[in-house]
């Protein structure tokens, strides 16, 4: 089974989100689980639209706390009725909102405690890649996180290899992701590092033109799709390519 996440980020109106979800709901897949990561304010309505389908929902973030005086935050407990997954530690939040591994670990625990599967992003930046430190950086990130989280297992945690330099919103990136061969090598490294306990998906400028070259690698369990997930036709094409890979 492959997992394909549509990370809409801060895009789409409610009407657009509803129409998109209705179309995805019509499709039937045996080998793919589509997961829509919508803006949080749409999750309640989309959960009604998608009831009874194989399409799942994910939050793009959760709070590091269960409740309390945290203005603007939304807890995993509040989100749990509406979504099955949550992206945690996306590189944009690390870069623009200064999220660190301690905060990320707390968010992971909140997700697990509330039966939301955290999709935990790990990855190196351009300078770290250029200096040959990719694996060392990934190892350090995982070691810090794994020491601080509660009872992670294959059914309650997923990982994303998300090289910061390869995502479509990275500075100076023209939509060029990692090579499939290097992505495969990094996934092999992560599988070994985590004792093959968790699904690990790839995130970095995945689009219809290149998705098959990532997905046909047995070490890659799916994709976190950014910009290409905003266009219905492109996302459907990705789902069909993965279904038939």
Can you describe this structure?
The structure is a single chain. By secondary structure, the protein is an alpha/beta fold. It has one domain: TIM Barrel (Alpha-Beta Barrel). Helices cover 38% and strands 15% of the residues. The protein has 10 helices and 8 strands. The protein has an 8-stranded parallel β-sheet with strand order 7-6-5-4-3-2-1-8. The longest helix is centred in the middle third of the chain and has 15 residues, at 134-148. The chain starts with a strand and ends with a helix. The mean pLDDT is 93.
Uncertain segments are: none
Tell me the Rg in angstroms.
17 Å
Biggest beta sheet attributes: 8 strands, parallel
What is the number of E strands? Answer: 8
What is the third-level CATH name, the topology?
A: TIM Barrel
Mean pLDDT: 93
Total tally of structural domains: 1
Proportion in helices: 25-40%
CATH class: Alpha Beta
Distance N terminus to C terminus?
11 Å
Beta content comes to: 15-25%
Structural class by helix and strand composition: alpha/beta
CATH architecture: Alpha-Beta Barrel
The number of helical segments is 10
List keywords for this structure.
245 residues, 8 strands, 8-stranded parallel beta sheet, 10 helices, globular, alpha/beta, TIM Barrel, single chain
Task: Show the helix and strand layout.
Blueprint: E1 2-7, H1 14-25, E2 32-37, H2 43-49, E3 56-59, H3 76-79, E4 85-88, H4 91-97, H5 101-113, E5 117-122, H6 126-130, H7 134-148, E6 158-161, H8 180-193, E7 200-202, H9 211-215, E8 222-225, H10 232-243
Parallel strand pairs: 1-2, 1-8, 2-3, 3-4, 4-5, 5-6, 6-7
């Amino acid at each position: 089974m492959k997992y394909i996440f549509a990370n809409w980020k801060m895009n789409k109106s409610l009407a657009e989100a509803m129409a998109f979800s209705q179309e995805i709901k019509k499709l039937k897949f045996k080998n793919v689980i589509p997961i829509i990561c919508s803006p949080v304010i749409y999750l309640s309505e989309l959960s009604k639209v998608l009831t009874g389908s194989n399409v799942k929902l994910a939050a793009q973030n959760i709070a590091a706390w269960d409740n309390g005086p945290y203005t603007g935050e939304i807890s995993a407990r509040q989100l749990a009725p509406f979504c099955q997954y949550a992206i945690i530690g996306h590189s944009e939040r690390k870069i623009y909102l200064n999220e660190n591994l301690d905060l990320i670990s707390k968010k992971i625990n909140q997700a697990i405690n509330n039966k939301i599967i955290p999709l935990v992003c790990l990855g190196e930046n351009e300078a770290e890649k250029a200096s040959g430190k990719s694996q060392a950086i990934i190892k350090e990130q995982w070691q810090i996180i794994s020491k601080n989280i509660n009872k992670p297992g294959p059914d309650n945690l997923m990982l994303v290899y998300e090289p910061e330099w390869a995502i479509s919103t990275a500075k100076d990136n023209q939509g060029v992701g990692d090579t499939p061969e290097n992505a495969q090598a990094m996934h092999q490294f992560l599988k070994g590092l985590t004792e093959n306990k968790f699904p690990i998906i790839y995130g970095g400028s995945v689009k219809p033109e290149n998705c098959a070259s990532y997905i046909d690698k047995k070490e890659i369990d799916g994709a976190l799709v950014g910009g290409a997930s905003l266009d219905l036709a492109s996302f459907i094409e990705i789902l069909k390519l993965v279904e038939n890979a």
